[in-house]
Write a structure and sequence with these properties.
Structural class: alpha/beta
Distance between the termini: 41 Å
CATH architecture of the largest domain: Alpha-Beta Barrel
Radius of gyration: 25 Å
Number of domains: 3
Bound molecules: phosphoenolpyruvate, magnesium ion
Number of helices: 20
Strand content: 5-15%
CATH class of the largest domain: Alpha Beta
Number of strands: 16
Low-confidence stretches: none
CATH topology of the largest domain: TIM Barrel
Mean pLDDT: 90
Strand order of the largest sheet: 1-8-7-3-4-5-6-2
């Protein structure tokens, strides 16, 4: 028996055998060829076939997981058409007189290394993609079937990391869970696993290797705990936990459609945090009373260039329609710091978390901001929509943003476009400054939502990305709780409502305290809505 801890990125427990998938590219050998030009043609043939397969994969993925997930395969297809890539492989074949599979593999590793060293996160993410598409070409050249999980027995699939195309091809029925050495919580593996509801643990490092193949394993996606070669007693204990989870899920059903009210009749609205329209469906499935935070920046992060007004309008409208009569709070662009998009060409900064980000970018680039605002206003004709501004620190920022919103409305009026004239404009309280002057801000904002993730980082001066600072990051720190209380009090004194949309909102040990403070709304991930309602109703 061996116990290890990774990072749980998709909830649920799995018990089963490990199927370790080794990387095909590690094993490609260099072979000298007689005719380099012939070999270049062989490469071109395999490349074209790989591109066709990716096109087909895009279609099936769109059906199975939606257009957003399919987009990746379109990007992969384009990578295979890239002239630099094709020339680099051709040059390698000719200069080394080497076989195509080795030349593809070498080129992929070189490109991937270059991508990984770039400062831009979007480009860094391409490092995995170039390996992924190249692996497909190598498999075709070697006459192998693409890696699929066509195993007879449902298993826990393990690998150093999964390429995006592999995760998308997984069959739900035969995949008990995913386990990787590398990866991050926002890697494709994690996102796909969550989308498909497959438990996943990442970040096991070197401890996970081929020797795990075929061995029994327990994986807990809630805690990140892994037990290899568990005893019968351990398996039984985990089965018991699985049964309890199943019972708990059934119990939660009783809270669907109910108000979130304590026994003494205090009500708190339970909303959901989402990033796209699929999450909005999840919010509805989990009976969220609205969307408290739509992180609109994902639209920008997925694009190669600024998403235009129509594209944004369609995305916001789709969410507003899915949520029907429930409120959808769209947070305006929150890019910068850890969320980078190359086309913004943001300056490299010593201290990006305190740099040019979120509303600051929008105020410096009013046209970018107004494009988003117009799209949001247009969507407001199709549901109940509100705007929320991130990273406000001063009253003048809110005023300036409202002036730009007025300009956006005037532009739509000129075009005779319909929108909700009373669309509320609220702010996130996520800087200590905003919390301290929340009395002033409350006079000019329609609502507050406290972003405890950033509020904690800035109040305690603890970088939220830095795992090494865990012991200093006390999420229940009195300083943060006092700022929350001040903000709620000031909101109520000015007659506006105040919610929490940071991760702390889902912390059930604080629910009673938040309700006592008078917090009006808690916005949490969709699967956390019903457990939190149960908690509220039992208080
Ligand atoms: C927050 O800061 O608490 C928040 C909800 O926003 P994000 O996590 O997207 O920065
Ligand atoms: Mg934030």
């Amino acid at each position: 028996m061996m116990e290890l801890n990774g990072k749980g990125v998709s909830k649920g427990i799995a018990i089963g055998r490990v199927r370790y998938i080794s990387q095909v590219m590690d094993k490609v050998e260099k072979r000298i060829v007689a005719d380099a030009e012939d070999e270049v043609r062989r490469f071109e043939g395999a490349r074209a076939l790989a591109a066709t397969q990716l096109g087909e994969l895009a279609v099936t993925t769109a059906e199975k997981l939606g257009d957003k997930n399919a987009l990746l395969f379109e990007i992969h297809q384009m990578m295979l058409e890239d002239v630099d890539y094709r020339e680099a492989v051709g040059d390698k074949i000719r200069s080394e007189n080497a076989c195509a599979e080795w030349s593809v593999s070498e080129t992929a590793v070189e490109f991937s290394r270059d991508f990984a060293q770039m400062t831009d996160e979007y480009m860094q993410a391409r490092a995995a993609d170039v390996l992924d598409v190249s692996r497909r070409v190598v498999e075709i050249l070697l006459g192998k079937q693409p890696r699929r999980n066509a195993f007879d027995e449902p298993s826990i699939l393990a690998a150093w990391d999964f390429a995006p195309s592999e995760t998308a091809q997984l069959e739900r029925e035969t995949t008990l869970a995913l386990l990787t050495s590398g990866g991050s919580a926002n890697s494709h593996t994690a996102i796909f696993a969550r989308t498909m509801g497959i438990p996943a643990v990442i970040g096991l490092g070197e401890s996970l290797d081929e020797s795990w193949n075929g061995r029994q394993c327990i994986l807990d996606g809630d805690t990140g705990r892994i037990i290899l070669d568990p005893s019968e007693a351990e398996i039984e204990a985990v089965r018991e936990k699985q049964r309890r989870q199943e019972e708990y899920r059934k119990e939660l059903e009783a809270y669907r459609g109910r108000e979130s009210k304590t026994r003494q009749g205090k009500e708190v609205k339970l909303f959901a945090n989402i990033g796209n329209v699929q999450d909005a469906s999840l919010a509805m499935e989990n009976d969220a009373e609205g969307v408290g935070l739509f992180r609109s920046e994902f639209l920008y992060l997925e694009s190669k260039d600024y998403p235009d007004e129509d594209k944004q309008f369609e995305a916001y409208k789709a969410v507003a329609q899915v949520m029907r009569d429930r409120l959808v709070i769209i947070r305006t662009l929150d890019i910068g710091a850890d969320k980078q998009a190359a086309y913004f060409k943001l300056p490299s900064e010593e201290n990006p978390a305190m740099g040019l980000r979120a509303l600051r970018i929008c105020l410096q680039r009013p046209e970018v901001f107004k494009t988003q605002l117009r799209a949001i206003y247009r969507a407001s004709a199709f549901g109940r929509v509100a705007v929320m501004l991130p990273m406000v620190a001063s009253v003048w920022e809110l005023r300036r943003a409202k002036e730009l919103a007025a300009q956006a409305r005037a532009e739509l009026d000129e075009q005779g476009v319909a929108y909700d004239r009373s669309l509320p404009i609220g702010i996130m309280v996520e800087t200590p400054a905003a919390a301290v002057i929340s009395d002033q801000l409350a006079k000019e904002a329609d609502f507050f939502s406290i972003g405890t993730n950033d509020l904690t980082q800035y109040t305690l001066a603890v970088d939220r990305q830095n795992q090494g600072l865990d012991e200093f990051c006390d999420t229940h720190h009195e300083a943060v709780l006092r700022l929350i209380k001040t903000t709620v009090d000031n909101a109520h004194a000015a007659g506006i409502w105040c919610g929490i949309c940071g991760e702390l909102g889902a912390d059930e040990t604080l629910t009673a305290r938040f309700i006592e403070m008078g917090v009006d709304e808690l916005s949490v991930t969709p699967p956390a809505v019903l457990p939190l309602r149960k908690r509220v109703c039992e208080l």
